Amino acid sequence: NEKVRAKVGELAGQVDVVLGNLEDAIPIESKEAAREGFIAMAKATDFGATGLWVRVNALNSPWLLDDLTRIVGEIGDKLDVVMVPKVEGPWDIHFVDQYLALLEARHGVKKPILVHAILETAQGVNNVAAIAAASPRMQGMSLGPADLAASRGMKTTRVGGGHPDYRTLGDVIEGGRTSAQQDPWHYTIARMVDACMAHGLKAFYGPFGDFSDAEACEAQFRNAFLLGCAGAWTLHPSQIAIAKRVFSPDAGEVAFAKKILAAMPDGSGAVMIDGKMQDDATWKQAKVIVDLARQVAAKDRDYADIYGF
Ligand code: GLV
Ligand code: MG
């Protein structure tokens, strides 16, 4: 897509990762053109500190072998991560790991290309811990709610987010009752985060397809952020600001977390701050928030000011 490619240089300055998608959403007759377009774009763009990833086609597709062979051969030294869709179990990761090793050796690629799995089949969710442990190349995982919904037989046509029919009901009070949507992805996100964090990987929420509902996108991203995800995909430029806002910790939380760290310099014992008990565990919670704030601040002067670094 020439129009999108022309914007990549500008886009790269606003995001942590630029991902070239070769899989779903690319018409079958355009698979080769998309691959070659990605290679040309990667060669022509200076990504600076921004990561360059590619979502290749699935292992059972006729395109995967040429995707990996061409891309590693042409831009192996520029590519950070291969995102593998529809991963079913550790055997899929083993294959990609070994094939990448062959290609890296053949082309003299200097640093190992990492692997990111999309968690988007019922079997993949069943095997999530083994997938996380499958290779030292594993960088992380993303939840793929669209394929996963289909694989599980969930009754939805939406790409991620809540569903108007999946709700809780409040008690009947004075003849009325409140009701609210639940997050149908709660269970999967929690399993994915546990599997990832147990192996030092990053968990991501995947796509949110309704570009017209920024509020619902923000709510879904925020649930993922609070449960431990490191980020989310942005399919549309309008979602970049939402993701930045959500995945940068709240200034009030950062200020409180800094207070905890300052009050317990060696991280032990117990203190009271603003009526709340703090101990070793809350010190660790505070460190998660402050470390993340530092990471965000290192890339963004505005946030550095907001957080007071
Ligand atoms: C992403 O690939 C999804 O299926 O949601
Ligand atoms: Mg998918």
Describe the protein.
- The chain is of the alpha/beta class and 309 residues long.
- The two termini are 40 Å apart.
- It has a seven-stranded parallel sheet with strand order 1-2-3-4-5-8-9. A two-stranded antiparallel sheet has the order 6-7. Strands 10-11 form a two-stranded antiparallel ribbon.
- Helix 3 packs parallel to helix 4 and helix 12 crosses helix 13.
- The longest helix is centred in the last third of the chain and has 20 residues.
- Glyoxylic acid binds next to helix 8.
Question: How do the strands and helices of this protein lay out in sequence?
Answer:
Layout: H1 2-6, H2 8-12, E1 17-21, H3 31-44, E2 51-55, H4 64-75, E3 81-84, H5 90-107, E4 114-119, H6 122-126, H7 128-132, E5 138-143, H8 145-152, E6 167-169, E7 179-181, H9 186-198, E8 202-205, H10 214-227, E9 231-232, H11 238-247, H12 251-263, E10 271-273, E11 276-278, H13 280-299, H14 301-307
Parallel strand pairs: 1-2, 2-3, 3-4, 4-5, 5-8, 8-9
Antiparallel strand pairs: 6-7, 10-11
Helix pairs in contact: 3-4, 4-5, 10-11, 12-13, 13-14
List keywords for this structure.
309 residues; alpha/beta; two-stranded antiparallel ribbon; globular; binds glyoxylic acid; binds magnesium ion
**Separation of the first and last Cα atoms:** 40 Å
Helix count equals: 14
Radius of gyration: 21 Å
- Secondary-structure element series: HHEHEHEHEHHEHEEHEHEHHEEHH
What are the bound molecules?
A: glyoxylic acid, magnesium ion
With strands numbered from the N-terminus, the spatial order across the biggest sheet is 1-2-3-4-5-8-9
Class from secondary-structure proportions: alpha/beta
Roughly what fraction of the amino acids lie in strands? 5-15%
Number of strands: 11
